[in-house]
Amino acid sequence: MTAPILVTGAAGFIGYHVVQRLLADGHQVVGVDSFTPYYDVSLKEARFGNLTPHNTFLGESLDLSDAQATRDLFQHHRFEKVIHLAAQPGVRFVDPQPYAASNLMGFMNMLEACRHGEVRHLVYASSSSVYGANRKLPFSEHDIADHPISLYAATKKANEMMAHSYASLFGLPATGLRFFTVYGPWGRPDMAVYKFTHAIAEGREIQVANAGQVWRDFTYVDDIVEGIVRLVERVPVPDPAWNADLPDPAISPAPHRVYNIGNDSPEEVNDLIALIENALGKKAKRVDVPLPPGDVLETRADVTDLRRDVGFAPSTTLEEGVKRFVAWYRGYHGA
């Protein structure tokens, strides 16, 4: 019997879509989530509820910062592939403790479990936020990214370093994925597309940073999922081209890689708002605010490596993606 694939954060936005895709492709999946109240838990429960009827899906409530519970999970199941998407999200600083517990201790427990469980490939979520203070665009995996401007970004950069050390010390193959501004059906209510849509639909004000002159590489969730499922099958190996005298951050003498997954086509937030207005048939009530600490003016993904290695790069337009999201929003909220 084929070993099940473990997906952590299975009740989260991206995790939910990844599990759906894996089930549709015929895989057995074990999905875990801790259902933290960072946003409305009922949305997470609704996602999870859509997964549980599948007879090839086993869902569990589990906090990965609990080392013993994580070890028990790997003792009960034999995983060859792990897709680790569980994390405390959000670039705006509030309370540091959840970031440390989930993104650092939870990730360390996952690395240890994968090491002792002899996992063949760990694919884990990093973030475009690791590029931090970098100004050179598009953001490339070959550029040094050592100046995070949010605690969230710092924990994600730490994840990359931790995974690389386990790849180097123990030969654990690991691939980090730097996601760029993911949106789509069943999305996160704190993210711009959902937040703006919900407020405009209800006639409430929206806060618009820097008069909307902010550019994001909005990436539709189905494109993110396609990149994930392709990269799961591409197990990294040591790269003999790595040069210790001129180290390239994108390659390694260890079985570890990082990839951007983004649309490579930044859109101004003003254009996003206009698309939402058109889809809803309502005008936004705008309030201009300064760019919040931890945010950057522009992101753009260089997806050269992704396209070369798996023959794919995201391509869903923001116009099409917003239409799909608003259609889902209307159905879910009865709006």
From TrEMBL:
Keywords in alphabetical order: NAD
Gene3D superfamilies for the chain: NAD(P)-binding Rossmann-like Domain (3.40.50.720)
InterPro entries assigned to the protein according to its UniProt record, in alphabetical order: Epimerase_deHydtase, NAD(P)-bd_dom_sf
NAD-dependent epimerase/dehydratase domain: residues covered: 5-234
SUPFAM superfamilies cross-referenced by the UniProt entry: NAD(P)-binding Rossmann-fold domains
The protein's name: NAD-dependent epimerase/dehydratase family protein
Origin organism lineage: Bacteria, Pseudomonadati, Pseudomonadota, Alphaproteobacteria, Hyphomicrobiales
